[in-house]
Amino acid sequence: MPKMIFVNLPVADLARSTAFYEAIGCTRDERFSNDQAAMMVWSDTISFMLLTHPFYAGFTSKRIADARETSEVLLCLSRDSREEVDAIVDAAVAAGGTGDVRPPQDMGFMYGRSFEDPDGHVFEPMYMDVEAATAATGQPAAQAA
Known about the structure:
- There is one protein chain.
- The longest helix is centred in the middle third of the chain and has 13 residues, at 82-94.
- The protein folds into two domains: 1-61, Roll (2,3-Dihydroxybiphenyl 1,2-Dioxygenase, domain 1), CATH 3.10.180.10; 71-145, Roll (2,3-Dihydroxybiphenyl 1,2-Dioxygenase, domain 1).
- The model has no long low-confidence stretch (mean pLDDT 93).
- By secondary structure, it is an alpha+beta fold.
- The protein has helices at residues 14-23, 53-57, 82-94, 130-137; strands at residues 5-11, 27-29, 37-41, 46-52, 74-78, 98-99, 105-106, 110-112, 115-116, 122-128.
- Strands 5, 6, 7, 8, 9 and 10 form a six-stranded mixed β-sheet that branches.
């Protein structure tokens, strides 16, 4: 079985958040979705678990952070091109998110932008030309494990 990651995110409005994540390219997995949670599949190994605040609170004794006021995590999403970076930010804005919450970064070999979902969770889609990046830093290209 491949290693997988499930990013659990508290959301104020499950229907709104589900529509947002569908708009940026996720697919809802009905097997693990109900009126308290929606499993939004990003890839074969990454899913976002959108949890209503009361349901999320059942997994922790800590106060739920307001992601609009407090940085909790920065989620970097790799994309296959600069155009795909732009497209996902545009889709996020069209679906009710906030685009470019920090200035875009263009290092030539790496290009990144950012957006917030409706609850303030920050995503940083990026494209990197690994060969150009390793050449620019003088580091040898890493071998896959």
